[in-house]
Write a structure and sequence with these properties.
Elements lengths: L3 E6 L5 H13 L3 E6 L5 E3 L5 E3 L2 E2 H4 L6 E4 L12 H12 L3 E5 L3 H6 L26 E4 L2 E4 L5 H12 L2 H10 L7
Parallel strand pairs: 1-2, 1-6, 2-5, 6-7, 7-9
Antiparallel strand pairs: 3-4, 8-9
Helix pairs in contact: 1-5, 5-6
Length: about 180
């Protein structure tokens, strides 16, 4: 049975931070489910791209997923302390399942109380709140994966492929997209 990943699309999400994981995970045969925060399924990105979510978060809040992915972008500031997202992250963490946050999205790890004793990275614009952030493109600590921002979206997505599929699949996908770095 293929792995399942839930990606939360919020108004103002960073385009590449959502689309790269969706694309590369789909290539790896991972089932990716895109959810909106409400019944408005057409979710606008920070640059005006509209992505169609397949469900509202409330419809799937009780379903288990192998990974929960949260792209960053300026929209993160409007969803800080969102009770459904924070609860979902805590449940995912307690179950030992993967949580992946990129750019400003690690702020939700802080809001959910999951940042203590965690190695993570984040976008420099939010490092004042996440002052223990490492200066690294992608950081994995147990079942928490974080990345700095749009420029790290591909290595972030490839690490998701490694975690939800396997490393050889990630290498094959990296080669197929002409990714210049070794994994």
């Amino acid at each position: 049975m293929p792995a399942r990943a839930l990606i939360i699309l919020h108004p103002g999400f960073e385009d590449i931070e959502a689309v790269s994981p969706i694309d590369l995970l789909t290539r790896a045969k991972v089932e990716v489910v895109a959810v909106a925060l409400d019944d408005r399924r057409r979710v606008p990105s920070r640059s005006g791209l509209t992505v169609l979510a397949t469900h509202a978060l409330t419809e799937l809040i009780d379903e288990p997923f192998d990974a929960v992915i949260l792209p960053g972008g300026p929209g993160i500031m409007q969803i800080r302390r969102h009770p459904l997202i924070c609860d979902l992250l805590r449940v995912q963490f307690a179950a030992g399942r993967l949580i992946a946050c990129i750019c400003a999205a690690p702020l939700l790890l802080l809001d959910a109380g999951l940042h203590t004793d965690l190695r993570y990275t984040c976008h420099p614009s939010v490092s004042n709140e996440l002052d223990a952030a490492l200066d690294a493109p992608v950081v994995r600590d147990g079942m928490i994966l974080t990345a700095r921002g749009a420029g790290t979206a591909i290595p972030f997505a490839l690490e998701l492929v490694s975690q939800l599929s396997d490393h050889s699949t990630a290498i094959a996908i990296a080669k197929s997209i002409c990714w210049p770095d070794e994994l």
